[in-house]
Design brief:
The complex is a heterodimer of chains A (about 290) and B (about 260).
Chain A: H1 3-7, E1 19-22, H2 28-33, E2 41-44, H3 54-65, E3 68-71, H4 85-98, E4 102-106, E5 109-112, E6 115-121, H5 127-144, E7 149-151, H6 166-177, E8 180-184, H7 185-195, H8 199-205, E9 211-217, E10 220-224, E11 227-231, H9 240-253, E12 258-261, H10 269-290
Parallel strand pairs in A: 1-2, 1-12, 2-3, 3-4, 4-7, 7-8, 8-9, 9-12
Antiparallel strand pairs in A: 5-6, 10-11
Helix pairs in contact in A: 5-6, 8-9, 9-10
Chain B: H1 2-15, H2 33-55, H3 57-63, H4 65-78, H5 93-98, H6 109-124, H7 133-137, E1 147-151, E2 156-160, H8 164-170, E3 188-193, E4 200-203, H9 206-216, H10 221-231, H11 237-246, E5 250-255
Antiparallel strand pairs in B: 1-5, 2-3, 3-4
Helix pairs in contact in B: 2-4, 3-4, 3-6, 6-8, 9-10
Classes of the chains: A alpha/beta (about 290), B mainly alpha (about 260).
């Protein structure tokens, strides 16, 4: 294939500390051809696990113009199943091909007995889980030959036998395994509302120097009997409450690469570029205040 | 890790509707643990249903969203994903359709699903270069009898009793006016492959279909032609060969 020759004409790999967009296939052409640009792009790694064809060629072309981050949704780090080596090899091949600036995964499990849930299922935050995940993440980082970021999930249940808060659990995971933290501010908000946690405490607890990326997305509200529950649907704009929380986050963390995720009911590309510009506005305020 | 093991076992069984048993230790916090788990079950089922709908857009169009949801439900129960990559999910949908009682009135539906899956596979298959006609010029005449060909890795063959290529074409999002398709207009033999970026669906005649499937199974050209000749005397192998080379269907040759 021709991707070796493409690499010579690429922009640099590092993800800049500005806003980027989660790229989904209906926007492939827009990302390449539209005058409305963004700072960087992130894709779901598994969507490019095919052997060839249009998706990989388009990703090569996109990589020539943008720094790209690879975000995984299926590594199933917290599963008691053996690691899926085929999955890890596919990711390693994609990393070699695309030269991403960041590689990330989730604090969750997705599979049991070789059956995949296609969703991010929550883990109990205990010493046993922590030790298990530290080993799994270290093995993955050794295999890939690079650091990965781990994202806090949105969750709809928690376990009575958890002994850590999620934020402290993430800090410890990062400290012991050497991974970084991908702080999804929408997920912080969703989980805090769903479980009655304090979102500002969560942000305050997070170890700032470990955070390598922020995610922002829209969520939905679902009514279950008397209870209101937030669902991480990525099907609309970032809510006002999450924008406010984001401002608190960047005040504390400083400028961090920030991604707009929108996966369902996709709007026009320009709408995503506007959302990203809004995040850039908040990031620039930080720079100005620092100056 | 026994606790984590049992938790994940019971959680995943609940999601795949094998049991109503609730894993222990889930906080209620204003809702029944079962209602909380049901959110995950719903996410899984909705996500997988949409993944199937993405691949099987023609089937969805033929049967409508509601009926498709029932097919998807049956599929998810019978064949849950075995890999995290959804690109690999849904390969046996045609078999589930064949066995689905309420779909028996649409005998062409399963083959239509097969065609859509082959299209999907071809789209993501490995790239390969077409064999140049000039490469064959170096062959010596005494090698012809032992000559075989590699077919493009994306190539899939499908024979159906129904005109599924027309059904497929008429139900694309960009298809023109409604056309009537007579189910009795007959069988078709299809080649689905992707010589470059775009997936092609070619209708083959019986002799060409037989010859190509024989080559794809690893037979030499001579062996394949002998088979075809028995049933379809007068098969013009040379012009077929030129046609396949021109179409980028052959990627290499070998001498046994």
């Amino acid at each position: 294939m021709t991707h070796n020759s493409n690499q010579q004409m690429r922009v640099r790999a590092a993800i800049p500390a500005c806003a980027g967009i989660g790229l989904r296939s209906p926007h492939h052409r827009d990302a390449l051809n539209s005058h409305a640009k963004t700072g960087w792009l992130e894709v779901h790694s598994e969507n490019y696990f095919g052997k060839g064809g249009a998706p990989l060629r388009i990703l090569d072309a996109i990589r020539a113009d943008y720094p790209v981050s690879l975000h995984g949704v299926g590594m199933s780090l917290g599963s008691v199943d053996e690691p899926d080596m085929r999955h890890l090899r596919q990711l390693k091949d994609l990393i070699a091909r695309i030269e991403p600036g960041l590689v990330s995964e989730h604090l969750c499990w997705n599979s049991f007995g070789g059956r995949y849930l296609n969703d991010l299922a929550p883990l109990p935050y205990t010493d046993a889980t922590l030790a298990y995940l530290v080993r799994r993440i270290s093995e993955v980082q050794d295999f890939l030959g690079r650091r990965i970021l781990i994202e806090n999930p949105s969750s709809y249940l928690e376990y009575e036998f958890s002994t850590y808060s999620e934020s402290v659990f993430l800090n410890e995971l990062a400290r012991r395994s050497g991974c970084g933290i991908l702080l999804d501010v929408n997920n912080v908000y969703v989980s805090c509302v769903n479980h009655g946690w304090n979102a500002l405490d969560y942000l305050q607890d997070i170890s700032a120097e470990q955070v390598g990326e922020i995610h922002l997305a829209g969520h939905s509200v679902k009514q279950v009997d008397e209870q209101r529950i937030l669902i991480d649907t990525h099907n609309g704009p970032v809510s006002d409450a999450v924008w406010q929380l984001y401002q608190c986050a960047v005040q504390r963390l400083g400028p961090v690469p920030t991604l707009i995720e929108w996966d369902a009911d996709l709007p026009d590309w320009e709408v995503l570029v506007d959302e990203a510009a809004k995040a850039d506005g908040y990031l620039e305020n930080i720079y100005e205040q620092a100056a | 890790m026994n606790r984590l093991h049992d938790l994940q076992r019971d959680f995943s069984r609940f999601v795949f509707q094998e049991t109503g048993l609730i894993p222990g230790g889930i906080k209620a916090n204003g809702m029944m643990p079962e209602q909380r788990l049901a959110i995950y079950r719903n996410n899984t089922r909705a996500g997988l249903t949409e993944a199937l709908r993405d691949v099987y857009q023609v089937v969805n169009r033929l049967v409508g969203d509601k009926f498709f949801n029932r097919l998807a439900e049956a599929y998810i129960n019978a064949h849950p994903p075995q890999s995290a990559s959804l690109l690999e999910f849904g390969g046996r949908f045609a078999d589930v359709i064949s066995g689905f009682q309420d779909a028996q009135a649409l005998p062409y539906l399963a083959d239509t699903a097969r065609l859509e899956w082959y299209w999907h596979e071809a789209y993501h298959e490995a790239d390969d270069h077409a064999l140049a006609m000039s490469a064959l010029a170096r062959l010596k005449p005494e090698q012809y009898g032992r000559l075989g060909f590699n077919i493009h890795p994306s190539a899939r063959f499908l024979a159906s009793d129904y005109p599924i290529a027309r059904i497929w074409a008429c139900n694309q999002a960009d298809a023109g006016q409604n056309e009537r398709i007579d189910l009795n207009e007959g069988a078709c033999r299809l080649l689905i492959y992707r010589p470059d970026v775009d997936v092609k669906i070619l209708s083959l005649d019986k002799a060409e279909y037989q010859c190509l499937t024989a080559l794809a199974s690893g037979l030499t050209l001579m062996q394949a032609v002998r088979q075809v000749d028995a049933e379809h005397p007068g098969f013009d192998v040379l012009s077929s060969l030129q046609h396949w080379l021109f179409r980028g269907l052959l990627t290499d040759f070998f001498i046994i």
